[in-house]
Amino acid sequence: MRRIDPVSGMQFELDMPGGVQARTGSTLLVDRAAAYLANGPASSQALVANVCQLSALPPVVAEHMASTLLGDYPRFVRTPDGAWRISEPVAPTWRAQEPNDEPLLTSLSFAVVDVEATGGQPFRGDRITEIAIVIVRDGQIERTYETLVNPQRSIPPFVSRLTNITWEMVSGKPTFAGVCAEVVRELDGHIFVAHNAGFDWRMVSGEVQRTSGRVLAGRRLCTVRLARRLLPQLRSRSLDSVTNWYGVEIPEGGRHRAGGDAIATAKCLVRMLHDARGHGCERWSELERFLTTGSAIKKKKRRRRPLAMPQPVSRDTTA
Prior knowledge:
Blueprint: E1 2-4, E2 11-13, E3 21-24, H1 28-37, H2 44-51, H3 59-70, E4 76-78, E5 84-86, E6 109-117, E7 128-137, E8 140-148, H4 157-163, H5 167-170, H6 176-187, E9 191-194, H7 197-212, E10 214-217, E11 220-222, H8 223-230, H9 239-246, H10 258-277, H11 284-292
């Protein structure tokens, strides 16, 4: 799997099957430093003077500023004489040359995520109120992480009616900044899975970046998308429909709560991965091809209706 470094923009091959990782996010000053060092190594004084537009800095101060700015970014390294430079791309340590070289799906681990939130637009201030992460390995649920989160803003009444999560329930709970390290640790190295994964990924990655400055990256799997390919006979691929098909029970009061929905999704994932093997999906690349093949929605050809406006007569209709 290829990843793009947020600082240099260079692509690198991973030595692991694409599990979620959190990396330090880029900033304007870091981007300026990368652009400046693209021309060659530079001392701390020259680097800080250019990036921060400062001059006449004592060497000790410049050294401290440069280390603070770039010290958390592995793509910046020091030369033997102490100058800063962009490191060379790391040679790949794993790359599948043959299909059998790629790990089997059964050897991968999955982090099945569900979040409840004040809304669906984190860039407009919506925040997570509850998050659950269920780790699935070898076709079994290994462990579950679950916590309420103080969103530091009011919860709309219609959301409280849907989730049964009230402000009184979350007011004394930690904010996302207080649980961010735990969330990242639970996700680390696993494939991110959710029912409608775009929403959950957007909320979790947005909260992680907002509170820690780190950027999540890694493979994702949407069980809605997987259900479309595996269960074309279902009119709806909602979690209720998929759980009903597989006979997965959601405990009373567990629907629209992070823990109940995440556990139900995890159980459905195990069943769907088993069904996918019946379609020849033994490895991740085969599953990706299966999800892509025939997944495009074909637009129906619209019949051209006659215009309602009067039209000129082209033949004699009185005979």
